[in-house]
Design goal:
Elements lengths: L9 E10 L5 E3 L7 H5 L7 E2 L6 E6 L16 E5 L3 E6 L2 H14 L5 E8 L5 E8 L13 H13 L4 E6 L19 H14 L3 E5 L17 H5 L19 H17 L5 E3 L19 H17 L4 E5 L27 E4 L11 H7 L5 E3 L5 H14 L3 E5 L8 H13 L5 H6 L2
């Protein structure tokens, strides 16, 4: 009955039969709108009730007896399907959203499998990272037009993800600093459409990604020039010579970064996280005096600045962790191991050491978690790397996975679907199941 279901639940009971239900729905959830998700089952918007107790969404006939004896744990949802009703229960609206997505996956040709099912996703933070590029920058990459992004968001949301990280490579329409994006960037309406689709319709949390130290999130992929310096060369003093890293101690640089942070946070509706990247840092000194200050100290000071600015918005800082450990991209400056000890422990460390080490342990995990940091890990295209990372995430009880797609979002979709199902159920989906969902 659950053949090729990606979001697999624990089965408490099943009769091996299916049922079709009347096209009506009712819910006591007021915080979320299920209209779009219900439309995927050809159901109308749910009628609202004021009933107290566990949150629920019922399809077909309303049956209050299905609420008896639930005793749900935190993060757990229950799905009960009888011949006349399919009911989803949870302690929170997010639990009900999870249950509804699983119910969508279980439905075949309008029929639901009769039985009782429960589940708690095995990985807490199930994130996917999508980049958005300028279409004519002359580099090899796959399409990231608005509809492409919407389609991939839908796939991710329906197949287990609860966060989506969006990185606009010079394509975010900054209002206070309009020279911080290309002239053919996304419109404000485009961005708001994507964010509204994620939050309101798909019930996933969009997280902004913008490099606030350096690197290509501000530039052409194949160029060392920032988008700002391409358009405003008179602002070159805000960067160190060469235009790659910010001159982080300057007050005009700090004012610029404050405006960027404010615009991202407000546009993304005050998200719980902001990913500051912080990778590929080559240096920060902007004066002769600062160029003799240890790079470690300049780096630590800037991390504290970013952390404190985000904290003003109730937003938690995320960063790529490789600068603090492996420094794969920077061979001539490697942070001392003590640098991590000088950073706020609520920074979420995103481990990115690529996925080519087979079944070995990522030593970064112990390095950061033993120092009190929470971690998430980032596989890329390879299913083997994704499998290893999900296994280690569950073994270490780490916060989660940030599945990257970079310049190949469409090529990455089989791994995105595979990772989503694996993180959800704790069991590897078969190739047949993955293909059925693409």
């Amino acid at each position: 009955m659950l053949k090729n279901v990606l979001l697999r639940p624990s089965v408490l009971s099943t009769q091996g039969e299916t049922t079709e239900l009347t096209k009506q729905a009712v819910t006591n959830v007021t915080e979320k709108d299920y209209t779009y998700l219900l439309s995927l089952l050809s159901y109308p918007a749910a009628k609202q009730t004021q009933e107290k107790g566990d949150k629920y969404l019922m399809l077909g006939e309303y049956d209050c007896t299905l609420q008896n004896g639930l005793n749900l744990a935190d993060g757990e949802y229950a799905v009960k399907i009888t011949s006349k009703t399919a009911a989803v229960f949870g302690k929170t609206q997010d639990d009900v959203s999870n249950g509804l997505k699983m119910l969508i996956d279980m439905c075949r040709n309008g029929k639901f499998p009769i039985g009782e099912y429960r589940h708690t996703p095995k990985v807490r933070m199930r994130a996917v990272h999508f980049c958005i590029f300028r279409p004519d920058d002359g580099t090899e990459k796959e399409r990231t037009q608005v509809q492409d992004v919407l389609d991939r968001l839908k796939t991710a949301a329906l197949y287990g993800y609860n966060y989506v990280l969006l990185e606009f490579w010079g394509m975010f329409p900054y209002e206070k600093r309009p020279y911080a994006h290309w002239q053919n960037a996304y419109s404000r309406e485009d961005v708001e459409k994507i964010i509204a689709f994620a939050i309101d319709d798909l019930h996933v949390t969009p997280i902004p990604v913008q490099n606030l130290t350096s690197h290509a999130g501000w530039s052409r992929i194949s160029s060392r020039q920032h988008v700002v310096l391409d358009q405003r060369p008179d602002l070159a003093d805000m960067w160190i010579p060469g235009g790659w890293c910010f001159a982080t101690t300057r007050e005009d640089t700090k004012a610029y970064l404050r405006d960027i942070i404010e615009d991202l946070v407000k546009t993304f509706r005050y998200p719980p996280f902001l990913h500051c990247s912080c990778d590929k840092c080559f240096g920060f000194g902007s004066t002769e005096e600062e160029r003799v200050i240890p790079a470690d100290d300049l780096f630590v000071n800037h991390m504290h600045f970013l952390h404190d600015e985000l904290q003003k918005y109730g937003c938690r800082m995320v960063m790529w962790a490789d600068m603090l450990y492996s420094s794969l991209d920077v061979k001539y400056w490697k942070c001392a191991p003590t640098v991590a000890d000088k950073l706020p422990k609520d920074i979420l460390m995103n481990i990115w050491t690529h996925n080519d080490i087979g079944e070995s342990e990522w030593e970064d995990i112990t390095f950061f978690e033993s120092r009190g940091f929470e971690t998430i890990y980032s596989p890329f295209l390879g299913k083997d790397g994704a499998r290893n990372m999900v296994k280690q995430c569950m073994r270490h009880h780490s916060l989660g996975i940030n599945q990257t797609t970079w310049h190949k979002p469409q090529t990455a979709m089989p791994t995105v679907v595979y990772s989503g199902g694996f993180m959800w159920s704790g069991e590897q989906p078969t190739d047949e199941t993955v293909q059925a969902h693409l």
